[in-house]
């Protein structure tokens, strides 16, 4: 099973989602069965570490983002990943616009897994510290829901 988190530049929301989701998979004993990555729609930050404010907020919750580096969405991501999860509606529209015909991946909003239908993870880049905490709260909630769905899908399959 493969999961890709997508935001605009891959320095705030999607790397945070990658780090949080990895932690949730570890806690559920599924880390060895699920590949996780993140990327951005744009190429502005390719090769850069996550925004220091995102990294600091995550670190305060025991999540290390220091090894992550930004990358841009690639055409083969649509065939490599089972889930491509956008942080907001603009990211979702960009994913759908780039999705090749016949794509079988689940493409949707990440917060759908938290029961926040039609709600976006807000971009904290231009806001204050509280925005990064709100992002973490939302991502933690959605991560738990996504782990439940993936665990259900993996049930009965060989490890």
Automatic annotation (TrEMBL):
Entry annotated with the keyword Hydrolase: yes
Family the entry assigns: Belongs to the low molecular weight phosphotyrosine protein phosphatase family.
Superkingdom of source: Bacteria
InterPro entries for this protein: LMW_PTPase, Ptyr_pPase, Ptyr_pPase_sf, Tyr_phospatase_low_mol_wt
The species this protein was found in: Billgrantia sulfidoxydans
Coiled coil: none
Record protein name field: protein-tyrosine-phosphatase
The EC number(s) this enzyme carries: 3.1.3.48
Segments forming domain Phosphotyrosine protein phosphatase I: 1-149
UniProt keyword annotations, A-Z: Hydrolase, Protein phosphatase
